[in-house]
């Protein structure tokens, strides 16, 4: 079965409706047991060029393909950023609040780069607007299920965020190799769970989640 290719159909419709720019937005690491949750954002406007060949939702790409496409995605969009919320913050605030917190940090980085956030539409993957729940000033957010698969800007945000977070986990593995983070990226593989049982929890673990998983 052929893999669906993302288009800019939704983004173009939003731009024609008056948005100055469209900010594709996606999260990665939501279900991991260790490491931060990350939210990627990628900005396009009406002058954007064709989607880079092979760009897909990060979940549909191998790690080498993501690494190869990440610089292309960054060069394609006007601006991009990744916001993070730490494992400790997930324990303290809960995952939904931390999605919003990471998204707020990513949008702040865009604002500091000169992006007109209030004049943009945020195209958010999924059906829950967790982003506005974290913002004091509501933004124009459009949610869409499978936007990471179907929408070019969100696919770019997905790849940029995934590669950023994966690199953090690979760096953490170099410092603490016992948990296998370079391979599992903090997700609950059998080997990862065995390592936790043997070594105990690390500061990068979401300790409240380990209690649920026990």
TrEMBL record:
Coiled coil (UniProt feature): none
Organism: Leifsonia kafniensis
Domain RNase H type-2: 20-214
UniProt keyword terms in alphabetical order: Cytoplasm, Endonuclease, Hydrolase, Manganese, Metal-binding, Nuclease
Keyword Metal-binding: yes
Name listed for the protein in its UniProt record: Ribonuclease
Stated role: Endonuclease that specifically degrades the RNA of RNA-DNA hybrids.
Cofactor(s) demanded: Mg(2+); Mn(2+)
InterPro entries found in the cross-reference section: RNase_HII, RNase_HII/HIII, RNase_HII/HIII_dom, RNaseH-like_sf, RNaseH_sf
Catalysed reactions, as listed in the record: Endonucleolytic cleavage to 5'-phosphomonoester
Cofactor note: Manganese or magnesium. Binds 1 divalent metal ion per monomer in the absence of substrate. May bind a second metal ion after substrate binding.
Enzyme Commission numbers on file: 3.1.26.4
Similarity comment: Belongs to the RNase HII family.
Annotated localization: Cytoplasm
Predominant subcellular localization, coarse grouping: cytoplasm
Top-level taxonomic group: Bacteria
Keyword Nuclease: yes
Binding site for a divalent metal cation: 26-27, 125
